[in-house]
Hints:
Structural class: alpha+beta
Distance between the termini: 20 Å
Radius of gyration: 13 Å
Strand order of the largest sheet: 2-1-6-5-4-3
Amino acid sequence: MKNTGFEQIVRSFIAAANNFDTQTVLDLFTPDGVIEDVSVGEKFQQEEGIRKYFVTFFIGYHTSTQLLSVEETGSDKILAKVDFTGDFGHETGGLAIHFNETGLIKHIEAYLD
Length: 113
């Protein structure tokens, strides 16, 4: 894994998600942040949408996320490969994460393998 400042933000996001810490997750996003989950075919926008996504898919399914790898894919982009377990069973997938200039998350494209 390449060590970057963005990698630490990814680790903070996963730690907050695993602790079901909604506020910390929200604090990592820009005000106009988006989570686009291609596996459910929906975009979750701004604080209200991101909260709905997190409560539904992380808290609601008791999801635990393990970071498998991190790859820098651009000057403001990281691809995090992850392993998800929860009430739904087990899945692997990825989080393509775009950051703004201050290190907040602008956009996540989440997908399952």
